[in-house]
Amino acid sequence: MLRRRAGASASPEPEQASPADDRPAAQAGKGRPTPKRSEVERARRQGQAYAPPPADKKQAAAQRRDRQRSEQKRRMDAMRKGEEWALPPRDRGPVRALARDYIDSRRLVVSEYILFGVVVLIIAIFAIGSARNSTLILYIELAILGIILVEALYHGAVVSRLAKQRLPGQSTSMIWWYIAKRSLRLRASRVPPPRVERGATI
C-alpha cells in the first residue's frame, strides 16, 4: 500500500522547452532563398565560399553584373591563351588553332582588306548607276570573290601540309573555309584574338 501511494503521489516532471521553441518566428526560418545547387557547385569548383544572394534586389542585380563581368574577363583571358574550354565549338581543336596562328602571323593577307574594296564598289554602284557600266562592276565583283577564294585555298593547302606533319591523324576537312572566314576580318576584330605577332614563325 505504501509503495502504491508513493507511486500515485509522484507527479511527472514538466518537459523542458526546446531552444528552437524559444526563438522568434523571424529567426526560426533561414530568412533567405535556398541557393541553387548549380551555383553552389560552381562556387565550389572555383574554390570560393558560396555567399547567399542579398535580400535587396538592386544589390543582387549589381552583384550578378559583377560576376558576369568577372566571368567574361576570365573567359577572354583564357581565350587569348588558347585554352580549349574557353573557345566556341567552331574554334576548338589543334588544327584550327594552327590555322589561326598561321593566318595571324602573315604580314599581308589581301582578304583582310577586301572589305574596303567592297565599300568602294558599293559607292561606285550608286554613283555610276548606268547599265553600260554594269558589266565592269560584275567583273570587279568576280575579281574580289576570286581573290578571296584563291587566297583561302592557298593558305588552306599550307595549313593542311603543316597539320599532316605536326598533327598526324587530325582532320583538315574544310579548313580553307575556316581560314577564309578569319581572313576576311580585320586583325583587331578577330575572335578568338590573335596570340602571335605578325611575322612570327609558325
Task: Describe the structure using short key phrases.
202 residues, mainly alpha, flat, disordered N terminus
Structural description of this entry:
This protein is an all-alpha fold and 202 residues long. Among the domains are: 53-85; 87-189. It is built from 9 helices and no strands. The chain is flat, with a radius of gyration of 34 Å. The termini are far apart. 11% of the residues are buried.
Strand and helix layout:
Blueprint (H helix, E strand, L loop, with lengths): L1 H8 L9 H4 L2 H4 L8 H9 L11 H24 L13 H12 L8 H15 L5 H33 L8 H9 L19
Helix pairs in contact: 6-8, 6-9, 7-8, 8-9
In short:
The protein has 202 residues and is an all-alpha fold. It has nine helices and no strands.
The count of strands amounts to 0
Elements, N to C (H/E): HHHHHHHHH
Please summarize the sheet with the most strands: none
User: Compute the gyration radius: what is it?
Assistant: 34 Å
**For the residues shown, what is the average pLDDT?**
78
Query: Helix tally?
Result: 9
Low-confidence segments: 1-30
Shape: flat
- The fraction of residues assigned to DSSP E strands is under 5%
Which class do the helix and strand fractions yield? mainly alpha
Q: What is the CA-CA span between the terminal residues?
A: 107 Å
Task: Report the oligomer.
Answer: single chain
Percentage of residues in helical conformation: 55-70%
